Amino acid sequence: MSYRAWFQCIAPGCGNTHRLNEVVYHCGRCGSLLEVKHDMEALRDRSARAWMRLFDDRYKTGQWPYGSAIWGKKEWVLPEVDNENIVSMYEGGTNLFWTERLGKVVGIRDLWVKQCGLSHTGSFKDLGMTVLVSQVRQMIAEGVPIRAVACASTGDTSAALAAYCAAAGIPSVVFLPKDKVSLAQLIQPVSNGSLVLSLDTDFDGCMALVKRLTEDKGIYLANSMNSLRVEGQKTISIEMVQQFDWEVPDTIIIPGGNLGNVSALGAGFEMLHDLGLVTRLPRIVVAQAERANPLYQAYKEGWDTFHPMTAGKTAASAIQIGNPVSVDKAVRILKRFGGIVEQASEDELANAAALADRCGMFNCPHTGVALAALVKLKERGVVAPDERVIVISTANGLKFSEFKVGYHRGTLEGVSPRHANLPVELPADFDAVRRAIAERVEPV
Questions:
Q1: HSE of 339 in the Cβ direction (CA atoms, 13 Å)?
Q2: Can you list the residues of the chain whose pLDDT is less than 50?
Q3: What are the boundaries of each domain within the chain?
C-alpha cells in the first residue's frame, strides 16, 4: 500500500493543500498555518491490531531506520521520504518513569514522568528535528536549492537543529537571545558547527528576524510553525500509549511555550483514535510560567481573546515566550481534549522541581512548571488521586545546572528554597565527620 502525506491549511472552510517538498509555512490562499495530513483511508488497510504488532516489532530494534521510536512509525509520520535520506540518531524510546515516591507525596498514586530529555541532544526537540531535517535532505536530493536551515530558539531547538544538520552535512543557522539560554544549551550548537547568532533581544525578537530571513526560500525554517516538526513530536503520544500496553492515561501535563508540542500531542492521540488503536482520549493540561502566560490568560477569559505579551524573565527559559506561533493549533486541540491551562510562579516551579529531585529525578525548570501545575490542580480537586497522570519532562536537567546551583544557594529571584541542600564543609577529621552525620541522619 502506498501512503501519502501533505500540508493542509488549518483554517475552517479553506482546505488548501501544498506538497511536503514545497518551501512553504503558511497557506498560499488565506495565510493561516498549515498542518500535515495523512491519507487515513490508506492507513486503514491495516487493522488496529496489525499496527500495534508492527510498531511493537520495530520498537528499539537494530533494523534501520525503524529502531528509532519515530521512524518505527514512519507510515504515520513521513511515509514518502526515502530511507537513505533519513537523518536519525535513534531518538525517542525514552523512559516512562513511575515516580512512586513523588506520587505519594503529592497524593497521586499512578503518577508517571515521560523523560523526553533522555534523547540525543537532551530534549524532546530531537523527535521533530529528525523529521524536518530528513525532509530537507530529501528535498535537496530532489533538486530543491536549500542552502541552510535556520531557527530561533530558547536553547533546545537550536541544539537539536545543529546536531541533526551536522549529521546530515547541511549548514544551520541559529538565533539565540543573548544571555537568556543556559551555558550548556549555548555550547551545543557551537560545538556542532552552527552559525550561532546571539542577539540582544528575547525569543520573540529572534523569531521575528528568522521569519524575515526565511522569506528567502534558500533558507529553510525549522521552528514549530513548520508542522513537519509536529509529525515527529506527535509520536510521544503514540509511544506513551504503547508503553502502557496500548492503554490511554487519564491526564497529560505538558509545559507550554511556543505551543507546538500541544498540537503534537493532540495529533498523536487523534491518529490513535481515528485508526482504532484506542477508544478514548486523555485530558491535556498546559502549564505555563506565570511570567510568560499568554495562553493561561486566554484560557481564563474563556478563549474569547488572545493577547501576546512581553514575556518576563523566568527560570523556565525555554518557555519564556510571549507570542507563541502555534497558539491557534494549541487552542483547537485544548478545546477538543477538554483541556486546562494552569500557571506556576517562580517559587512554585523551583520548589516543585526540587521536590521531584528529592524523589530521584533531576528535572529541568520547565518540568518544574508542569509538576507545580499538577500540585495545584490536585489541591483544587481537578485531578483526582486515582487518575493515571503523565507529566511530560521536556529536557534533561543537566542542561540547567546554573538553575540547580542557584536554587540550593538561595540566589534565585522570587524563590524561597524549601528543599535546599548545600554541601557541608568540614576538615578531614573523623570526629567532625561523625558528628555531622549524627546531626543529620536519624538513628534506626
A1: 29
A2: none
A3: 96-122+230-409
